[in-house]
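Hey, can you fold this one?
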Amino acid sequence: MECQAAFRAASFPDVLGSEWTKLRSVRSTFWALTVTVVLGVGLGAVISAAAARGYARFSASGKLSWDPTGVSQVGVAIAPPAIVVLGVLFISSEYSSGMIRTSLIAVPKRGRVLAAKSLVFAAVTVVVGEVVCFTAFFAGQALISGYAPHAALGDPGVARAAGSSCPVSLRCCRARGGTRSPSSGRPRPGASSLASATSPTPSSPGPASA
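Sure. Predicted structure:
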């Protein structure tokens, strides 16, 4: 009596599960995401603290162009290379190890494999990106507050700017959030300017710092 093994073609959810297992089981994923967090949150916090403490020495034009949202997101703007490296390793590791042959035997349709890889990588990047962006924003504003005008999440455009993360490269925009005017306390449009935030010019008469 012959026993014929049952064979079921891999469905798209099966391929998604397989790609998720591959992504979370490799060491490069942990290190790439760790570097992303360190750059996005840690570096952003250091820059925010340094820029806020130098705000009092800014010129009048420097204070007018002060953008606390943009300053707190500088680290996030530097983080994308870590995500790019993770994407390259995620796609290329199967080819270098030869495991791509096994994957294509199980799922002959290359388009389905590529779509699953892209979807899993995009989902992880979006989640990590949003967490890093908002964490960097809140940490940065906490360090800026008391030394310079700071932004609140409820100010016009701030939530959009703080949460802008690209699904593939974790880009976090040149923020254009509102700032709180030192004199009136009302939201005031900001212009992202890292140069004016981190390179203060000789001071001249201007609004007092908050």
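The first strand starts at residue 178 and ends at 180. Let me know if you want another pass with a different chain boundary.
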